[in-house]
User: Which sequence fits this backbone?
């Protein structure tokens, strides 16, 4: 299995493949509602990637997408995260690899915090979050939703530090 950044030109194939690999239960846990099919507007939103404010990583096995993790900016330095792994690949480390890779990408993009909502019944995802993102804050909200927030840290390069001092 390989995890890499997903680019807009290939996002449609990856989104379609992963969505069709999700059971009705997995779709419910991912979208927090029954989603029997991917509408055109949903597909457009999921494939709209610019590499910064909307970015994603894909997990592939023999070049076939088996999972996607996306971030979408919700502020200048915060982003919401969503993860989906096709059913046959769940509980095999794919989600962990995706979350770790997306966290690294978000750090490279200079985000200070990642956040997202997980249904309280989605215990495997909550365990994954606490394992892969130590220090993540979990807050139970209304309707059995757990809000997850995770502060990111990044190091300034020498050039960025000097540029900041000059400014």
Assistant:
């Amino acid at each position: 299995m390989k995890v890499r950044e997903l680019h807009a030109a290939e996002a449609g194939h990856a989104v379609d493949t992963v969505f069709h690999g999700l059971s009705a239960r997995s779709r419910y846990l991912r979208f927090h509602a029954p989603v029997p099919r991917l509408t055109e507007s949903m597909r457009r939103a999921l494939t709209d990637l610019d590499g910064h404010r909307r970015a994603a990583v894909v997990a592939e096995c023999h070049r076939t997408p088996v999972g996607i993790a996306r971030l979408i900016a919700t502020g200048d330095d915060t982003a919401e995260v969503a993860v989906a792994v096709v059913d046959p690949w769940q509980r095999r480390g794919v989600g962990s690899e995706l979350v770790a890779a997306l966290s690294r990408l978000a750090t490279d993009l200079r985000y200070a915090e990642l956040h997202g909502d997980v249904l309280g019944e989605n215990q495997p995802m909550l365990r994954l979050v606490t394992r892969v993102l130590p220090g993540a804050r979990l807050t139970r909200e209304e309707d059995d939703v757990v809000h997850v927030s995770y502060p990111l840290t990044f190091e300034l390069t020498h050039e960025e530090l000097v540029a900041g001092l000059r400014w």
Residues 96 and 132 are 6 Å apart (CA to CA). The mean pLDDT is 93.
